[in-house]
């Protein structure tokens, strides 16, 4: 018979709790795909592929989270989206 030895490691994990917010972009019937894509590239620093995927999701699903982060980082980005005529909010 063998004896099984159980080893329990104490792992201490220090996590910094950060309040994450999201910019949600909503669909509209006014803006073109190109305008939405270019605005996401500029305001949210998306790659062209990311921006295109978000625009398609917004078109078919009605909304899409386009950026996640701290409120202080998201506020100016959301303002750029709104100034460009897009419908967005921080939640």
UniProtKB/TrEMBL annotation:
A Pfam family recorded for this sequence: ClpS
Assigned keywords, A-Z: Hydrolase, Protease
Superkingdom of origin organism: Bacteria
The keyword Hydrolase belongs to this UniProt entry's keyword annotation: yes
A molecular-function term among this protein's GO annotations: peptidase activity
GO BP: proteolysis
Keyword DNA repair included in the entry's annotation: no
Residues covered by the Adaptor protein ClpS core domain: 19-83
Descriptive protein name: ATP-dependent Clp protease adaptor ClpS
InterPro entries referenced in this protein's UniProt entry, alphabetically: ClpS_core (IPR003769), Ribosomal_bL12_C/ClpS-like (IPR014719)
Residue ranges that the Swiss-Prot or TrEMBL entry lists as coiled coil: none
């Amino acid at each position: 018979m063998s004896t099984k030895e159980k080893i329990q490691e104490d792992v201490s994990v220090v996590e910094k709790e950060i309040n994450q917010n999201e910019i949600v972009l909503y669909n509209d019937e006014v803006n073109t795909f190109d305008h939405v894509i270019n605005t996401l590239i500029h305001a949210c620093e998306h790659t062209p592929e990311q921006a295109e995927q978000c625009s398609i999701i917004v078109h078919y699903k009605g909304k899409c989270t386009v950026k996640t982060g701290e409120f202080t980082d998201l506020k100016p980005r959301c303002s750029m989206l709104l100034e460009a005529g897009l419908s967005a909010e921080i939640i």
